[in-house]
Amino acid sequence: MSETNVENKVERAAHNKSVSLPMSRVRLIMKSSPDVSCINQEAIFLTTKATELFVQHLAMSSYNNGSGKDTNTLSYSDLADTAEDTETFQFLTDILPKKILARDYLKSLQELEEDDDN
Amino acid sequence: MDGDSTTTDTSQLGITGEYMAGGHYVLQAPDDDGDDSLHDHEDGNGCKDNLREQDIYLPIANVARIMKNAIPQTGKIAKDAKECVQECVSEFISFITSEASERCHQEKRKTINGEDILFAMSTLGFDMYVEPLKLYLQKFREAMKGEKGIAVPVSEGLGEELADDSFSNPLSGGLISPDGQQQNVMVYTTSYQQLPGVQQIQLVSHLEKIYLHAALEDGEMMDYEQGENHPLAESLNLYIFLVMSVIHAVVICYHYNFKVCWVISSD
């Protein structure tokens, strides 16, 4: 059956390329950057693989550095801490702001205003 | 009360960066609801930077799976952490792409290739990825060579994949009846199921859209960007289109018992 042969070949090729993230979506994200016209297929593949490595890297660093070891859970604060501490992940500080409670924020706001008045 | 605090959070997020020196902070409701905070965080970003309104993310299931494989087996991942990494990933991709794109522009090239990506990685501090990526690239190139050897079946495969959608697609045919009026006839082509080429032809009028659709569904199969079609596949499709148009016309004539066909030819 030619159908199954073709499907098998494509599956094998995809498996050899071994990406677990959709390359089409990666291409969409890449194209959303300004001034980007054409992207080579190799470039998309490399970016996809790099993204996988990045996710592994980020997850592992955050888990090991944060409170994950104690609580056995990777939480948002682990990620935020890692972003600030690690130079490689500095570019994430804008989208990984640390969280504080509202009352703490209001307190520090008040203190700031008092400093301005003085 | 919680509802009020979340709305004020959103408006105050814009002020946060200006008032707090050094660190960036996001407000969190006292009951520590992670999901709500993340929502506010997203809204805050939408307000702050209009360019991110149409942020595209990779599927969270895939991202979560990779994360799970990276941490010890017994580890768990918080939901907001998964969503957060999803955003980080898009940020990472944009980061790399803009750097690679800049290099491309500097060298007066229009297409970003693998080398640009690798260069961008090492520039931005991800040089530990470069070596493994080169190995993966090698594997990829070998796999692509194998695929190119079966270029024709790949385009047939494209037709096969779309077969599920095409079964009930009616094909409209223009027909001139004996009284000289044109009738639009809907011809259902399900009887053509056996021939993969024909399945492809059913959608030939929307060929570009289909290639784009297939590209979006499975990027690995397409070698070319939108607007570019594989030359071999394109000429093959044109050939098939011409042949099948003729056959199609003949079949329609048979369907109407020759009458119309002969009426037209006699005029």
Automatic annotation (TrEMBL), chain B:
Q: Which InterPro entries does the UniProt record give?
A: CBFA_NFYB_domain, Histone-fold, Transc_fact_NFYB/HAP3, Transcrpt_fac_NFYB/HAP3_CS
Provide the alphabetized UniProt keywords. Activator, DNA-binding, Membrane, Nucleus, Transcription, Transcription regulation, Transmembrane, Transmembrane helix
* Annotated GO CC locations: CCAAT-binding factor complex; nucleoplasm
Does the record bear Protein biosynthesis in its keywords? no
Region annotation (Disordered) maps to: 25-47
Its transmembrane ranges are: 236-256
GO MF term (any one): RNA polymerase II cis-regulatory region sequence-specific DNA binding
Tell me which stretches of the chain form a coiled coil: none
Keyword Lipid biosynthesis on entry: no
List where in the cell it is found: Nucleus
| Compositionally skewed regions (Basic and acidic residues) per UniProt | 36-47
Please name one Pfam family that this protein belongs to: CBFD_NFYB_HMF
Subcellular location, principal: nucleus
Transcription factor CBF/NF-Y/archaeal histone domain sequence ranges:
57-121
Tell me its family: Belongs to the NFYB/HAP3 subunit family.
Function, as annotated: Component of the sequence-specific heterotrimeric transcription factor (NF-Y) which specifically recognizes a 5'-CCAAT-3' box motif found in the promoters of its target genes. NF-Y can function as both an activator and a repressor, depending on its interacting cofactors.
- The protein in question is named Nuclear transcription factor Y subunit beta
Q: Which organism is it from?
A: Pygocentrus nattereri
Upper lineage: Eukaryota, Metazoa, Chordata, Craniata, Vertebrata
